[in-house]
Amino acid sequence: MSDPLDTPPIRPEPGTRMLFRWRKWDGSPHWMHECVYLGSDEWGDWFGQRAGWRSTRPERDYLVDGPNVTLMPPSGLYAMTVNVAPPATYRVYIDLGWDVRWGESDGGLEPTGIDMDLDVVHAVDGRGIWIDDRDEWDEHRVAYGYPLEIVDRLESLAIDLERRVRGGIAPFDDATPDAWLERLAALEPPEPRLDE
Description:
The chain is α+β, with helices and mostly antiparallel strands. It has a single domain (12-186), classed as FomD barrel-like fold (Beta Barrel). 21% of the residues lie in helices and 41% in strands. It has helices spanning 134-143, 148-167, 175-186; strands spanning 17-23, 29-41, 44-49, 54-57, 60-63, 68-72, 78-83, 90-105, 108-123, 129-132. Strand 4 and strand 5 (60-63) form a beta hairpin. The chain is globular, with a radius of gyration of 16 Å. The model is unreliable at 1-5 (pLDDT under 50).
């Protein structure tokens, strides 16, 4: 018999619009993305964002210039966004995180997580694949007092994710996210929420 705490939440219907809410370690707000729930597969839950939908954080607000999909794996340690490129200058952007999961919001479920600074990026403009924001990581792990075991775990994970992106190992290949991009394109577009 399974532990009820290990039971995944009842997910919304595919096509349900929502916000993906990020915060920093101290609880302060970070990115908030308009998105739509697409469904799940063996890798986790997938969300889509259409061109013209909003991504915002304190002091920054912009409209997405091309569609993308985001994977939230059950590990709760990152979220991977895959863009149609061009217009995006990067194909893959992985935000390392903590407690990335379904959370309650206004009586429903929405994805949420703590942004942990380190990112793995696969650019399509000639810059290649690398681990980004190491300077921010070094600054914040002291300022926020990240626990040492979390620092060690996420630094190792960043190296492993970079290796897997370089190798094109699923779900960091093209075929896996492209199938979800096709599903996003096939959905009736819900209205974006941040302008409401």
